[in-house]
Design brief:
The protein is mostly beta strands and about 220 residues long. Helices cover about 5% and strands about 50% of the residues. The strands form five sheets. A five-stranded mixed β-sheet has the order 1-13-10-16-17. It is globular, with a radius of gyration of 18 Å.
C-alpha cells in the first residue's frame, strides 16, 4: 500500500529522464470527452477519451516534465479554440502511465505509473479518491483505505470463477454505514481497477467506478 497522493499527483523529487511518455487515458464523466495534447511542435492533436475503458497507449510530449490536457472552448470568431484544462507533474520514474481525468468535485488529472502492466494479470487495483475512509472486504484481503490511499492485491479466487467482495463507508466510530457489494469473474488476462469516488452531492456516500483492462502481451 502506498500514499496515493504521491503516485497520482506526481510529486517528483527529480526530473523525469524523458520529455515524452506513453499514457492510457480514462475520463470520469457521463459522456466521452475530446481532449487536446500539444506535440513537440506546439500543435494540438485531438484524442477521444471514454468513461468505460482506457484508451490504447499513445505518446505525449511533456515539456518541463508536465502533462497538460486541453479542451475545446467555443469562440465567436474562431471555429475551434483549445484552452488548458487539467495538468499534472510527470512522476520521476517510468515510461508508461495511466492518465485519469476526474471532474468531481473539480477538474483534476491523476498520473499513475503503469510500467509493469504486462505482469498484472488477475491483479486488483483499488484507489480511494473520496474524502472518507472506506473498508474493503475481499477474499484474502480486508483493510480500511483512508483518504488518498490505494492497494494492489490478487484476490484468493480461482481463475475463471466468480468472486464477491464489499466496499463499506466507515463511520466516525468505525461503524459501517453504507455498503456496496460487488461480484466479478476472476481472469488471469484481466486486471481490475476500482476507483472510490466522492459523490456528486454532499452526503455520507461514495461512488464506485470499475474498469477491466485486458492485458495484451506482445
Amino acid at each position: 500500500m502506498f500514499a496515493l497522493s504521491t503516485l497520482l499527483l506526481g510529486l517528483a523529487l527529480t526530473p523525469h529522464s524523458s520529455p515524452s511518455i506513453k499514457i492510457k487515458a480514462l475520463y470520469f464523466g457521463t459522456n466521452p470527452k475530446q481532449i487536446g495534447i500539444k506535440d513537440h511542435h506546439g500543435e494540438i492533436t485531438q484524442h477521444s477519451v471514454y468513461t468505460h475503458s482506457f484508451t490504447p497507449f499513445f505518446a505525449v510530449h511533456c515539456p518541463e516534465n508536465k502533462l497538460t490536457l486541453y479542451r475545446i472552448q467555443p469562440h465567436p470568431s474562431k471555429s475551434v479554440e483549445w484552452l488548458p484544462w487539467v495538468s499534472a507533474a510527470v512522476p520521476s520514474s517510468g515510461e508508461n502511465f495511466l492518465a485519469i481525468i476526474s471532474e468531481t468535485p473539480s477538474p483534476k488529472l491523476y498520473l499513475l505509473s503503469d510500467s509493469n502492466y504486462q505482469q498484472e494479470g488477475g491483479i486488483f487495483h483499488i484507489f480511494n479518491l473520496s474524502s472518507a475512509p472506506v473498508a474493503i472486504d475481499f477474499p484474502g484481503q480486508k483493510k480500511v483505505l483512508t483518504r488518498g490511499q490505494s492497494i494492489q492485491f490478487r484476490p484468493q479466487v480461482k481463475n475463471a470463477t466468480y468472486g464477491q467482495g464489499r466496499f463499506s463507508m466507515v463511520g466516525e466510530i468505525d461503524s459501517e454505514t453504507r455498503q456496496n457489494g460487488v461480484r466479478w469473474l476472476q481472469m488471469e488476462d484481466i486486471r481490475s481497477f476500482w476507483f472510490i469516488l466522492p459523490p456528486a452531492f454532499e452526503g455520507p456516500s461514495f461512488v464506485l467506478k470499475n474498469i477491466e483492462d485486458r492485458i495484451l502481451v506482445p
